[in-house]
């Protein structure tokens, strides 16, 4: 049985919706046996699908085809994840790198810091920020 690739990617839960899978194919993020594909391309047993989800490319081998979406427990019967370990290492490095460069005090303030900033700016006072006394207006 042949199935459209966008439908198959949705059925095996790689994408949340068929339209998202179709858009990924149109944007060149999906390959079938090493070649870029359009959403209507057919998938058969034995094909190798590559899906680019930044920063890595996942690789799957088709074991069976399916048209209907299935439960997560049934997915291993239909596809085999053959993504190289090097790709997962890149993903781990990306996760770690996000925290290494950030020094303390940068980024979003904590709740305590936000309260002290509001107090310092006078946000808790009873007057409005754009009060008439705040600006000196020139009148014509």
From TrEMBL:
Domain RNA-binding S4 residue range list: 3-60
- Kindly indicate whether the keyword Iron belongs to this entry: no
Membrane-spanning segments: none
Q: Which GO terms describe its biological process?
A: cellular response to heat
Q: Where is the signal peptide?
A: none
What keywords appear on the UniProt entry?
DNA-binding, RNA-binding, Stress response
Cross-referenced Pfam families: S4
Which GO molecular function terms does the record list?
DNA binding; ribosomal large subunit binding; single-stranded RNA binding
Please name the InterPro entries in this protein's record.
HSP15, S4_RNA-bd, S4_RNA-bd_sf
Q: What Gene3D superfamilies does this protein's entry cite?
A: RNA-binding S4 domain
- Family under the similarity heading: Belongs to the HSP15 family.
Protein's recorded name: Heat shock protein Hsp15
Taxonomic lineage of the native organism: Bacteria, Pseudomonadati, Bacteroidota, Bacteroidia, Bacteroidales
